[in-house]
Each structure stands twice: as structure tokens, then as C-alpha cells.
Design a protein that fits this description.
about 0% strand, mainly alpha, single chain, disordered N terminus, about 40% helix
């Protein structure tokens, strides 16, 4: 099985497990299970988005992914970032949220699917990934 197929399989398993209620949390709460972040090509924004972002933000980037219900704070509708910033995609703000997590006022700073995959890289690969992912999400902006 290729690394890409293996990564997709891990994401599907993660999404399914994330929706299973845990008895000790009560009937209305769910928990996010931790799985290793799969490898993706640093040159494919769509692949990185699918593997690292879609489980929470959804395939359509509107914040309605399969793991969204398990989060304390609803994921951001990524298609509205430019609209909420005077019509300009906020590249630096987006990249900071990916690398460091959202602002504390928006809940937990951890984005659980990919954890520290961007944070833990300190070389050009992290910068390339951030740029390519930013360019992809910029393309998803509502017109």
C-alpha cells in the first residue's frame, strides 16, 4: 500500500473513531482520538488539505468535517477568510494559525489531526508546506 493510500486510510479511521462517544464523557460528548499525521507531498496543497484539514473543516472547507462535532469550538469556515478580511486572503494570519494554532480566544490552540507536523519542522520544508497550503486555501475563497 502506498504512503498516500495508507495516509488516507488512517484519516478515515481517525474520522470514524473521532465520532464514537466515550462512556466516561457522557452521552452528548465525543472525543478526538490521536493518530500519527500521515505523510503528504509538500507540493500538493489539495493533498495536505485533505489529510490535515478536511476532517474538521470539511472537504468543502466550510467547517463541517466529520470530526467537527467532537470539538469544543466549531472549526472556521475557511471559505470566508478573505471576506472577513476586507476581501484579501490573510496569508500571514492563516499561516500563523496553521503553525501555532488558532488564537486562544477561539478555544484550544491544538489542531489535532496534524498536531505538530508544521510546528516541528524548522527548515525550508515547513515554509514550503505553509506556502503551498495557503495558496490552496486561498483558491477556496467564496467569490
Amino acid at each position: 500500500m502506498s504512503e498516500v493510500a495508507s495516509g488516507r486510510r488512517a484519516l478515515l479511521i481517525f474520522a470514524a473513531l473521532a465520532m464514537i462517544p466515550l462512556p466516561q464523557l457522557g452521552a452528548s460528548q465525543t472525543a478526538i482520538r490521536r493518530v500519527p499525521a500521515p505523510y503528504t507531498s509538500p507540493l500538493s496543497g489539495s493533498e495536505m488539505y485533505r489529510e490535515y484539514c478536511a476532517s474538521c473543516h470539511g472537504v468543502s472547507a466550510k467547517g463541517k468535517g466529520p470530526a467537527a462535532a467532537a470539538l469544543k469550538t466549531a472549526p472556521t469556515d475557511l471559505t470566508q477568510l478573505a471576506a472577513k478580511n476586507g476581501g484579501m486572503f490573510p496569508v500571514a494570519k492563516f499561516q500563523s494559525a496553521v503553525e501555532h494554532g488558532p488564537a486562544p480566544a477561539h478555544g484550544s490552540a491544538e489542531m489535532p489531526v496534524w498536531g505538530g507536523i508544521f510546528r516541528d519542522m524548522r527548515d525550508g520544508a515547513a515554509l514550503l508546506r505553509l506556502r503551498v497550503l495557503s495558496e490552496y486555501v486561498e483558491q477556496l475563497q467564496a467569490k
